């Protein structure tokens, strides 16, 4: 029974991490790049407005940062639950 609880805790933490990563990615790419663009269009970044920057470059940079964060956090989670690769 203890192994089942450990497995449930591991997968619960894994799913929570995936959901939060997807929420951040959706907020940045869809939220800032499309929905909130009129609100942030007055802020200039690199010769264009902030909404355009999020749609063209910001979402990609955030996505790359999320990939590295996810890999780092999953390695730590694997190690904490004893399922890491030696």
UniProtKB/TrEMBL annotation:
Q: Tell me the ranges covered by the Sodium symporter small subunit domain, including all copies.
A: 8-84
**Highest taxon of the lineage:** Bacteria
Keywords, ordered alphabetically? Membrane, Transmembrane, Transmembrane helix
Listed Pfam families: DUF4212
- Give TM regions: 17-40, 52-72
Q: What name does the UniProt record give this protein? A: Putative solute:sodium symporter small subunit
Supply the source organism's classification. Bacteria, Pseudomonadati, Pseudomonadota, Alphaproteobacteria, Rhodobacterales
